[in-house]
Amino acid sequence: MIDHIQARTFHRRRGALHNAFHYGVDFVVSDLSARLPVRLLSHNRLNLWSLWDRHHGGPRGQGRGVNWFRQVLAEHDFPLDQAQLLLITQPSFMGFQFNPVSFWVALVDENVCAFVAEVNNTFGHRHCYFCAHEGFTPITFEQVLCARKAMHVSPFQQVAGEYRFNFGFTKDQLNVRIHYQNGDQGVLATLSGKRQPATDRSLLWAALRRPFGAARVVFLIYWQALILYLKRAPFVKTPPPGLSPMTPSKNLDE
Known about the structure:
The protein has helices at residues 66-75, 200-209, 214-230, and strands spanning 2-14, 19-30, 41-43, 49-51, 83-89, 92-93, 101-108, 111-120, 126-131, 145-148, 162-169, 173-182, 185-197, 246-248, 250-251. The chain is mainly beta. 15% of the residues lie in helices and 41% in strands. The strands form two sheets. The chain has a twelve-stranded mixed sheet. The chain has a three-stranded mixed sheet with strand order 3-4-6, covered by helices on one side.
């Protein structure tokens, strides 16, 4: 299966220095079947849009795709025999790949019971956040799951504080809210859009409406970094990545 989400993302910096922006972005939802029912999107093959196993699930450039997610769930004693496993991500465009965040989702009876936020920075690092309730009860958007920040993402934020995840994913809609908080400083990021079946027409329209795909996203990241630099935001040098590739979440009330 393959869905296309023509989403909107919004970011707002909180604290002494304010900055906010929003833009459109295209995500796809796939179970990473070897054969996809569209011509303009391929799995492990160069196309206008592509999904590559090596870009997801494991170290950057050495991913194992859905097999990695299946192993992660098994290590957490997740009931795999009942689950549907999906990847929500921006596909690569003409071979160019970059995703600030992708989501691995495990559904049971169409309910999200676990997800992994796969976070990448522009310095070549990746860290994952495993999010689930005790007993893998369904996750709804109203519930908050927290995780300690463990990777340098922005040169204007320290590796400190925590992420608070709100994750809503239904058969019709994706709604994600990630609130990074470190004392009175922080960033609020949201991602939302309707799920619709991916078609060659919708994928072609995405390429025309938002050309260059992931390259455009990288440009926008650096553009916002320049704005913060000109606003004299404090600059933090890039520390080495942590030793652990994954951080577990906890419920807000724990």
